């Protein structure tokens, strides 16, 4: 799978190099290597990328398989069954209560008079409520 992905990516890079080489040959002749040279360099780089990327994917797969053998692996279950929505319901209820509590405390904040050194236009600010209380 990694080989196919990297080979497809390499084909995209070859197309990009082809288009860029043609555009630069028209816009600034002589400032860019010739079209065959550009494609040769890109092909060599892509071949190394595909080889090294495939080797790295194989080594990562091997390392995962060995660690999964010793640690038991990771089990992933995909299902549409939502028979136990209790944790989600509890979390949403807690979030609503915390939001309401924060809103009440922020509404109860007392305005602080602006001092002479303020540069915010003399707008009254509110003091932070005491969050350590009940």
Question: What topology emerges from the helices and strands here?
Answer:
Elements (H helix, E strand, L loop, with lengths): L1 H26 L7 H37 L14 H22 L3 E2 L12 E2 L8
Antiparallel strand pairs: 1-2
Helix pairs in contact: 1-2
InterPro entries: DUF3566_TM (IPR021949)
Keywords: Membrane, Transmembrane, Transmembrane helix
Protein name: DUF3566 domain-containing protein
What this model shows, in words?
The relative contact order is 0.07. This protein has a two-stranded antiparallel sheet. 63% of the residues lie in helices and 3% in strands. The mean pLDDT is 81. The chain contains three helices and two strands. The chain is mainly alpha-helical and 134 residues long. Pfam families: DUF3566.
Please mark out the parts with pLDDT under 50 across 5 or more consecutive residues, or reply none.
none
- Tally of DSSP helical segments: 3
C-alpha Rg, in Å?
Answer: 31 Å
* Sheet having the most strands: 2 strands, antiparallel
Secondary-structure element sequence? HHHEE
Tally of extended strands?
2
Residues in β-strands, percent: under 5%
- Taking the alpha carbons of the first and last residues, their distance comes to 58 Å
Mean pLDDT: 81
Shape by Cα distribution: flat
What class would the helix/strand composition place it in? mainly alpha
Helix content: 55-70%
Arrangement of strands in the largest sheet: 1-2
Provide keyphrases for this structure.
single chain; 134 residues; mainly alpha; two-stranded antiparallel sheet; 2 strands; 63% helix; transmembrane
């Amino acid at each position: 799978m990694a080989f196919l992905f990297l080979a497809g990516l390499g084909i995209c890079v070859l197309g990009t190099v082809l288009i860029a080489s043609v555009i630069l040959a028209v816009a600034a002749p002589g400032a860019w290597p010739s079209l065959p040279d550009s494609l040769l360099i890109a092909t060599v780089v892509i071949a190394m990328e595909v080889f090294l990327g495939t080797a790295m994917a194989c080594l990562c797969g091997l390392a995962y398989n060995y660690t999964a053998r010793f640690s038991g692996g990771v089990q992933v279950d995909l299902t549409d069954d939502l028979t136990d929505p209790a944790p989600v319901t509890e979390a949403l209820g807690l979030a609503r209560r915390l939001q309401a509590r924060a809103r009440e405390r922020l509404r109860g904040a007392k305005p602080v008079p602006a001092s002479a050194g303020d540069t915010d236009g003399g707008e009254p600010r509110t003091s932070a409520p005491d969050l350590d209380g009940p």
